Amino acid sequence: NFTTRACTIFICLTVFILLSCKQKNSVNQPAIDEQIITQYIADNKLDAKATGTGLYYVITNAGNGSQPNINSNVTVKYKGYLTNGSVFDQSTNNGISFSLASVIKGWQQGIPLFKKGGKGILLIPSELGYGNVSQGAIPENSVLIFDIELIDVK
To answer: Closest Cα to residue 95, out of 119, 113, 71?
Structure first.
């Protein structure tokens, strides 16, 4: 019957429209990360600078050697931890070597702030880390803190 079919089509279209208009969860993760990082900086009395991308950094020793760029291979000694202090990864005293282009954006942006021999801290928002994906001991949407020593640049 035409009326039954018209009603069925109308109901289906209405349901489709309502589901299409359903508002998505609008969490502003960059703003949340910014608040977490600035609170961490205040709590730990750090003299941190912002890059404008969400990344904050502290240089405790600028170093005096060459400065890397995205195309550099670097050797870095590091310790990575969450804002609650739990360590999720760290290198040996000899550090690890890698192409800067192959790591998270927070390292790509932060490590070039140091010269060879430089030391400091990178405070990385989740979007420059692993975003909304859990990675081993790192929960999704985590701010990452790294103590960094740039051992070598090639």
So the answer is: 119
Q: What is the distance between the alpha carbons of residues 128 and 99, in angstroms, rounded to a whole number?
A: 17
**Using an 8 Å Cβ cutoff, are 70 and 77 in contact?**
no
What pLDDT is stored for residue 8 in this prediction? 46
pLDDT band at 27 (very low <50, low <70, confident <90, very high): confident
Q: What's the rounded mean pLDDT across residues 97-124?
A: 98
Residue 102 exposed, middle or buried by CB count within 10 Å (0-12, 13-18, 19+): exposed
Q: Say what the pTM is.
A: 0.83
As a whole number of angstroms, the distance between CA 27 and CA 139 comes to 16
